[in-house]
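Before relying on records like the one below, remember that each one covers exactly one chain. Contacts with other chains, cofactors or solvent are not represented anywhere in the record.
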Amino acid sequence: MLSHYLIYSVLFLLFEHIIHVLGTWRLLKKLGITFFKSIIPIYNIVILLKIFNRSIWYIFLLFVPLTSVVLFVLLWIDLLRSFGKEKYIFLFFLSLGVYLYYINYSNNTELSKIRKLKKEENTGILFPIIFSFLVHTYIVQPFAIPTSSMERTLLVGDFILVSKIHYGLRMPITPISIPFTHNTIFGGKIKSYISFFQWPYFRFPTIQSIQRNDLVVFNFPKDLNHKIIDRKDNYIKRCVGLPGDILSIRNGILFVNHKKEESYKKNVFEKQQIYLIKTKDIPLNIEFLKEKMDIEDVEIIGEKKKEYFYQIMLTEKQVFQIKNLFENIVFIKKYILPNHFQEDSIFPNHFGWNRDFFGPLSIPKKGDIIKLNSKNIHIYYDIIVSEKNFIKKSNYKFIVNNNNFYKIRKNYYFMMGDNRHNSFDSRYWGFVPEDHIVGKPIFIWISIDWDRKNPLNIFNWKLRWNRTMTSIDGTNSYLFYFFVFLIFYLLYSFFINHKKRKINNL
């Protein structure tokens, strides 16, 4: 609820205010600010903004979740600079702010003459950084595609923009974190956020609801390293099942509400699956496949008596092209797991399903009343645990033996990758709760084709111009307009700089 979120926000501001007052009151006294003025909320910030020659508009950062932390850090740095402690700002960050307390309370610390900060010292890239942080947090966030699970829709090396407002802006839950990071720093070894203070979950109304076959960015529900929803790892998949749908896969073909997937398509997207190929006398030209047809996942299975066997990830369109290009193909067929084969890692692990024979499975909808029994407890157990937060393994037999009824509290979704045989998705770990939804991918702003075995080798990078500055479905390209904007911006910058130089020479 909004009221709960606002209460927590006020409590967090009060916490910040106390930290600020305790760490600065003696220094502020040297600046001529009485203790009484230094403890008045908001007013004490306004005084400092005037002393440090910062715009009064910075006060609005105080009332936006997350940016209030940025504002206080900014003022503390200005305070250090005013007392000639510029050289020790790195120590301030290294000590997580403790250095400010040290100079505030230490009688041995010699403070140089107080220096008045000039307005030009407080300009530069600061405003663009703050503006970018606000956009990144509340409107649009950039993501990179690191795996091939969404090929052919999204390729490894695509850099996309994701709207956070289409499916309803989810407000931040962890207020103390390092800006522009998600959940870890230094190669995933250290968490980039502090979890002891959390806001409750709150989401604004949606601009549009999630539709079947929409691409969706969400937080991975099974991320055991991060318990807080908005700090769990980000995944991107296609929503193939909505709350209340009945989903099944037969012979590798997806059925939703007993209809083939194709009958639901609004925008055509290409799926990849594993195909087995056999050629005779002459092997496949793998370099041609990779360079001319952009086929990356090619595995040589074996060779016997001038017969060559391959396992390749292909779309139906690519299958048709290969058949027409290579005359020596003996067969090319989709690799489907047999119905009797059980994948142990398949959700919910007790029905003998696999990636190509799955379900039927009903996707939970808010308000559904489920009669729990020994057959379905494996499907709903994680939902009950996450929603009620108190049922433990010891209660498992109690639930089954008493045939309890449970009312579903959230809507859930079923996500799958377009690379159907190379995607770790809902078939393996279950449903995505509505509170884990991050946003809607809307734009590819740049696409880089890199060596997947050595992605950091920038000398092998190639820019995919046909995917740069395009919509996600590839139907619209804005590259031309980008270059036009860039030219006008450069001309404008040249004119302004020329005018400034002319004025300075007068």
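The CA atoms of residues 86 and 148 lie 47 Å apart.
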